[in-house]
Amino acid sequence: MAVNKAGGSTGGGTGGTGRIRLYDEETDHLVTAELAPDRVSLLPGAGNAHDTHGSMSTAERIRILWGQDLFRDVVDGRYRAIVVGVNDTDNTHGIISKLVDTVTTSQWTGRSVTSYAKMFQESAAIHAARDKEPYVLKYDLDSVLVLALLRPRSRDFFTLDDLARGFATVTKMIQDRRERLPVATVSFLNARANRLLKGSGGAAGGGDGEPSFESVLRTMFDAGYRGDVYPPPAAWKLGGVGVFPNYPFPAGVARMGEGSS
Fold first, then answer.
1. Domain 68-230 has CATH 3.40.220
2. How far apart are CA 239 and CA 155, in angstroms?
3. Is 184 a residue whose pLDDT tops 60?
4. Which candidate, 55, 146, 160, 162, places its Cα nearest to that of 102?
5. DSSP string, the chain
6. Are the C-beta atoms of residues 38 and 1 closer than 8 Å to each other?
7. Whether the predicted pLDDT of 4 surpasses 80
8. pLDDT above 60 (res 58)
9. In Å, how far from its chain's centre is CA 167?
10. Choice between 212 and 34, residue whose per-residue pLDDT is larger
């Protein structure tokens, strides 16, 4: 896999004029991104350090972790909280089951994760039937807190509306709670257990298809979320498309989408 960074400065440090070398010896000439079948073409985002006019702060962006492994980063202790999806029927293919089975301090199992979600879902149906789904469940693994958006009852998918409500709740749960930061989330795209669709589409399965990554980021950002997001692994196959390290994207991207650029 390769990460191809385009448009960055070629100077070494402040005031540098020479081309920097990434590898020892002559390896720079041998490690060429164009030959890699799986790669990401990373473009400079708005407000990056190389941009002397950039003034974007951490409170105004979502950071996108291209090329990184969320599971590995959580196990390594890089986050205190993560956001995932969960359902009340089967989570064996979800990242949450992999986490509870791997994190040594966890007292949860894949089966108990689903059992708790089912119990909560049944209780909510009786006592809080009019509340807006999805609910956000907390699974404390001691070393990391999992904030799990519970898939709405009688549906096998989430929608962008679900994501908007869920992340509004998540934002409230981590606001002014330094012990729950830093926080990261899955993208909910290409999910096996809890897929994401654009619209409601009825209980049988939607029909609007999966939204774009940009739509997912916009939904999270508008809900107040400012943590990290991990793109789906399938993004490695889109090496011909430029991507950015944070959201909101540069203004020119919207103009391109509207056909005016």
1. yes
2. 34
3. yes
4. 146
5. -EEEE-S---SSSTT--SPP--SSTTGGGT--GGG-SSEEEE-PPTT-TT-TT----GGG-EEE-TT--HHHHHHTT--SEEEEEE-SS--TTSHHHHHHHH-TT----HHHHHHHHHHHHHHHHHH-TTSPSPPEEEEE-SSSEEEEEEPPTT-SEEEHHHHHHHHHHHHHHHTT-GGG-SEEEE--TT-SSSEEESS--TTTT-SS-PPPHHHHHHHHHHTT--SEEE--GGGGG-TTSEE-SEESPPHHHHHHHTT--
6. yes
7. no
8. no
9. 12
10. 212
**Ranges of each domain in the chain:** 1-63+232-261, 68-230
Q: Which residue has the tokens 């001691």?
A: 142
Q: Do residues 82 and 94 lie in contact, with contact meaning Cβ atoms separated by under 8 Å?
A: no
User: Beta-carbon neighbour count of residue 145 at 10 Å?
Assistant: 20
